[in-house]
Design brief:
It is a single chain. With 129 residues, the chain is mainly alpha-helical. 60% of the residues lie in helices and 0% in strands. It contains seven helices and no strands. Helix 1 packs antiparallel against helix 2 and helix 4 packs antiparallel against helix 5. The relative contact order is 0.06.
C-alpha cells in the first residue's frame, strides 16, 4: 500500500529538484513521472479494504448457496458472483468445463474454429512458423 503512495508523491517532488538543478529537462522529467505514476496505479489493489469486508460478509451470509441443490437462476448467478470458479464448478460443472472457465480460457486448449474470428481459423500456429 505504501509503494503506490510513494510512486505518486515522490516523483513530482524529485522532478522539481532535478529540473531546478538543471540535471534533467522538463520533458524527460515529465515522462519519468508519467511512467512512475502509471506503475503506481497499476500496483494498486484491485479491491478496497471495505470491498473485501463486504465480499466476506456476503459470502458468510450466503454460504449455503454452494450446498443447496434447488437454486433459482438468480441464486446461481449470485453464487458465481460471490464464490467465482468454485461455485461455477460446483453448480454447473459441465457448462464451466465446456466454456473453458476452469482451465485458463480458450488459449490453453483446443479452440472450436467456429468461434475463432481469425481469418486463418483456430490453428494459427502454422501461420507463424
Amino acid at each position: 500500500m505504501l509503494l503506490p503512495i510513494l510512486l505518486v508523491a515522490l516523483p513530482p517532488a524529485l522532478l522539481v529538484k532535478l529540473v531546478a538543478a538543471g540535471m534533467v529537462g522538463v520533458t524527460e522529467g515529465l515522462v519519468a513521472v508519467v511512467v512512475l505514476v502509471g506503475i503506481a496505479v497499476w500496483s494498486l489493489p484491485l479491491r478496497t479494504v471495505a470491498g473485501t469486508r463486504a465480499l466476506a460478509a456476503a459470502q458468510a451470509r450466503h454460504g449455503d448457496l454452494l450446498e443447496r441443490a434447488d437454486l433459482e437462476p438468480a441464486e446461481v448467478g449470485l453464487a458465481v458472483a460471490l464464490f467465482g470458479t468454485r461455485a461455477a464448478q460446483a453448480l454447473m460443472p459441465r457448462f464451466a468445463r465446456d466454456a473453458g472457465l476452469l482451465d485458463g480460457g480458450r488459449n490453453s486448449h483446443q479452440v472450436d474454429s467456429r468461434l475463432d474470428s481469425s481469418p486463418w481459423g483456430a490453428n494459427t500456429s502454422s501461420f507463424w512458423n
